[in-house]
Design goal:
The chain has about 210 residues and is an alpha/beta fold. The protein has eight helices and six strands, in the order βαβααββααβαβαα. The chain has one domain: Rossmann fold. The chain has a six-stranded parallel sheet with strand order 3-2-1-4-5-6, sandwiched between helices. Strand 1, helix 1 and strand 2 form a beta-alpha-beta unit. Helix 1 packs across helix 7 and helix 4 crosses helix 6. The N and C termini lie far apart (about 50 Å).
Length: about 210
């Protein structure tokens, strides 16, 4: 039985994080179900220059994520399709990663609003007690946003802010390395093996040597 990871992309800045998660899942051989919110399409275009359209999603995915997903087992569900497979608890899924997660998406998931398929699918995976990883990127955060994040945590989600650690790539870390760090931490939380970053070994000198300091 096909048991995909569902990846939900909301309209928050940080769509490169989603692209890195998708590449990591594909590299690990996991099937993927993709949900991209309407707001996320605008953010993808703004941050990458790539369009994302329902009728051309596979070609557009190459422009956004890269050729790594050309042979991946991936299925796309429009965010407005509330009759889609992931809207039901009986639909088989390994879990869900919401990356990036806007404050609006966090709120909608936390209170069960089900405004679109992304929110509904996340709520479904929470109620089915499957792993749900939420990657909020908003900063600074308001009181209401913090309250919604606590509600998500209490419901069983892993709340994983997009806060990269520099130790994995040194002081001269590139943007790509910092993006991969967050994607890798999200995959760690989901229990998916990856090689997106170098793990801490306890050898401080090794990390200093790598960045030339």
């Amino acid at each position: 039985m096909r048991t995909p990871w569902i990846v939900g992309v909301s309209g928050a800045s940080g769509t490169p994080y989603a692209a890195a998660v998708l590449r990591g899942l594909a590299a690990a051989g996991h099937p993927i179900d993709l949900v991209v919110s309407r707001a996320a399409r605008l953010t993808i275009l703004d941050e990458t220059g790539a369009a994302f359209r329902d009728g051309h999603w596979r070609d557009d995915l190459r422009g956004w994520v890269g050729a790594e997903l050309d042979t991946a087992d991936i299925r796309y569900w429009p965010a407005g399709d509330l009759a889609a497979g992931p809207s039901s608890g009986s639909y088989p899924a390994a879990g869900m990663i919401v990356v990036p997660a806007s404050s609006a998406a966090c709120a909608g998931i936390a209170i069960g609003l089900s405004k679109d398929l992304l929110q509904r699918a996340a709520e479904v995976n929470l109620k089915e007690r499957r792993p749900v990883v939420v990657v909020p990127r908003e900063t600074p955060v308001s009181r209401s946003h913090l309250q919604h994040l606590i509600m998500l945590l209490d419901a069983g989600a892993t709340v994983l802010p997009a806060s990269p650690g520099f130790y994995a790539a040194g002081a001269r870390a590139s943007a790509a390395q910092l993006i991969d760090f967050i994607a890798g931490k999200a995959l760690d939380a989901a229990g998916v093996k990856h090689t997106l970053f170098d793990r801490w070994s306890g050898d401080l000198a090794a990390h200093h040597d790598r960045d030339g300091s």
